[in-house]
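Late entry, written up from scratch paper. The run itself happened at the end of the previous shift, but nothing got recorded in the book at the time, so transcribing now.
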Amino acid sequence: MSTIIILGLVVVVAIFIIVTSITGRGAQKKEQEKRKKVVREEIKFWLNSNRNLKNVIVQYDTVYARKGAEYKYRDVFDVIVSIYEAKTNLFREKIALEIEGITTKQDKKTYTTKWIVNKQLDTEETEKRVAIAEKKIKLSKAERKALKIEEKARLKKLKIDEKNLNAQQREKSLELKKSNYIDKSVKSDGDKWVPRK
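Output as recorded:
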């Protein structure tokens, strides 16, 4: 009797796990398609504003999420897209873009992600970097070592630039404090703040 109950519970739990995994995959697929559509529209808007390309079809070739220390808390993607004419469906060009997703909290449980096209990248270099990261291209030990040294030098340069920028901002804020400058637009307002009782 007790074995039948235990067996029934195991079957119910197994069915529950299978159903939730299937529905979870479907929801994940829908979310991914929605995200791709939003990013595609953002790419079209960027092409229209920066390169004056209107009425084009954007097709994804490669989407690669960047990894590393500086991308730990950022969603940065290398996206390689093919651009086609909308009416004639002729291939126009292939470009690589750096796209960043900025996530903000909307409610307690809902988050919204705004996608921004940061810049256009060199297509060949991006394809090579993605192929190396996905291990489609085998590198020798010397090449891997050179790549690591180059990456460390780039990170070091980024840190130095950031340090210099912070120092400049500190100097500006000290100058403002010393000059006791009061912004006229704030003062001309004339509204006084009265605390509530």
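The chain has two domains: 9-138, 140-178.
(Scratch paper discarded after transcription.)
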